[in-house]
Amino acid sequence: MSSSPTATAQVGVVGLAVMGRNLARNFANHGHTVALYNRTQARTDDLIAAHGSDGNFVPATSVEEFVASLERPRRIILMVQAGAGTDASIDSLLPHLEEGDIVVDGGNANYEDTRVREEKLRARGLHFFGVGISGGEEGALNGPSIMPGGSKEGYAQIGPLLEDISAKYEGEPCCAYIGPDGAGHFVKMVHNGIEYADMQFIAEAYDVLKAAGLDTKAISDAFREWNTGDLDSFLIEITSEVLDQVDASTGKALVDVIKDAAGQKGTGRWTVQNALELGVPVNTIAESVFARSVSGHTDLRAAAQANLSGPDQTFTPDDVATLIEDVRQALWASKVIAYAQGLDLIRTGSLQYGWDIDVAEVAKIWRAGCIIRARLLERIRSEYAAGNLPTLLAAPSISEGLANAQSGWRRVVADATLAGVPVPGFASAVSYYDSVRAERLPASLIQGLRDFFGAHTYQRVDVEGTFHTEWSADRSETKEA
Ligand code: NBP
């Protein structure tokens, strides 16, 4: 059904910078007629000039014209700068929309903002979707991984279109309904948190091999080889490409002339902030966010470089092949821990907000298109699909893999530490592994200390109840009523 004779577009894209432009082309390449609107007209004109012949586009010069060009219910994808850009775009559209229309925010919004926006638009009879889109500009054009959160009713209208343009893994779309309101953006946030950890581990693997004397070419070869096995993933694949790149002006490896201060846009920080609020230990993700932060603190680093000494010991492996295998094990095992922590956060967030997220479906839609796509995800999907796992680490094939990897993993952490090479990600991952498998943790002493200075009480292993020791009196124990 059309709202006017000119309403010919099945989907509309607002915001035609790199992501929106490529997503619009992706829809067009799949045979959909795409309405286009951008605040600054020049971007719309550029897209039509460069790619207008790729498919059916309906460029609009005003919001009114854009809305009028869409079939009902209108399906509008916002690909604008997250935050103020999203709110401004929604506000400009609202007066022209009608009940049942669907507005999708495909930007990297904070899920809490998405919850607020969803409630606001729902009150007006509209479906609002917070949709995580991963894959960068290439993915937006050729098939991203898509994580939609919103109403099931709205998904029936927008889902098939999103599934159509998503990446495919063995023919299956990397897009599935995640849950209501903020669920999609929450999952995208955690995806990005895992991405931070993945990249930190890769950087540490590179650093350890470099400290052991391998040149950049040899390290690149190791990554290329790893990409043919269990570590097969987009990030491992592009690591060898980045390492192979030679700087035209100096003739050095490009990685050696790039300033060693890592940037961040905030989704890693959000992941950690939410994990703290939900009480979920995502140690490896937190270490990765902090490692980027340390790298950017140039004043702190300059002061430390001038004053802090390292060990006399250097990293001199007896056998390079063994070291490379150890680093591979450290990389694989640490990556598993990061996934376990991230998926635990998703499971907990889902319970907290009543989203009912299927973790197996999340792993399924991450298998292709997104930045963290990896061979490991199919195993994770099948393990979650097989049973209700309390943690990924409880899955038999995963625990077995970690047991096999642990000797190399531990050697890398120990040898790197002895040689003064920082491995915060690897060390954090192995500590988490040892913490969660430990029969008894020293938290008992922490409880004793808390009771000593603050009468915070403790529980006993042998008797039910809450207890306090009269530390400043006769040190007898009392049971709380
Ligand atoms: P940007 O994040 O750079 O945003 C540029 C777009 O936002 C332009 O179309 C611009 O319009 C529009 N915009 C701004 Br800025 N303020 C606006 C306002 N007040 N009202 C209306 N439009 C406004 O673009 P991008 O890199 O293509 O990313 C788009 C979204 O996708 C972002 O939320 C981003 O976080 C997310 N994302 C990006 C990537 C990536 O790899 N780049 C990956 C995944 C998700 P103008 O032309 O008039 O200035």
Automatic annotation (TrEMBL):
Q: What is this protein called?
A: 6-phosphogluconate dehydrogenase, decarboxylating
The record's function comment reads: Catalyzes the oxidative decarboxylation of 6-phosphogluconate to ribulose 5-phosphate and CO(2), with concomitant reduction of NADP to NADPH.
What family is reported? Answer: Belongs to the 6-phosphogluconate dehydrogenase family.
Instruction: Extract one GO molecular function annotation from the record.
Output: phosphogluconate dehydrogenase (decarboxylating) activity
* 6-phosphogluconate dehydrogenase C-terminal domain mapped to chain residues: 184-472
Any Gene Ontology biological process: D-gluconate metabolic process
Q: What is its EC number?
A: 1.1.1.44
The encoding gene is gndA
Annotated source species: Occultella aeris
| Catalyzed reaction equations | 6-phospho-D-gluconate + NADP(+) = D-ribulose 5-phosphate + CO2 + NADPH
Q: What lineage is on file?
A: Bacteria, Bacillati, Actinomycetota, Actinomycetes, Micrococcales
Q: Which residues form the active site?
A: 188 (proton acceptor), 195 (proton donor)
Description of how the protein assembles with itself and partners: Homodimer.
PROSITE patterns recorded for this chain? 6PGD
Residues reported to bind substrate: 108, 134-136, 191-192, 196, 265, 292, 450, 456
* Pfam families, per database record: 6PGD (PF00393), NAD_binding_2 (PF03446)
Keywords carried by this UniProt record: Gluconate utilization, NADP, Oxidoreductase, Pentose shunt
Top-rank taxon, per record: Bacteria
Q: Where is the signal peptide?
A: none
What does the entry list as the binding residues for NADP(+)?
15-20, 38-40, 80-82, 108
Identify the metabolic or biological route this protein is part of. Answer: Carbohydrate degradation; pentose phosphate pathway; D-ribulose 5-phosphate from D-glucose 6-phosphate (oxidative stage): step 3/3
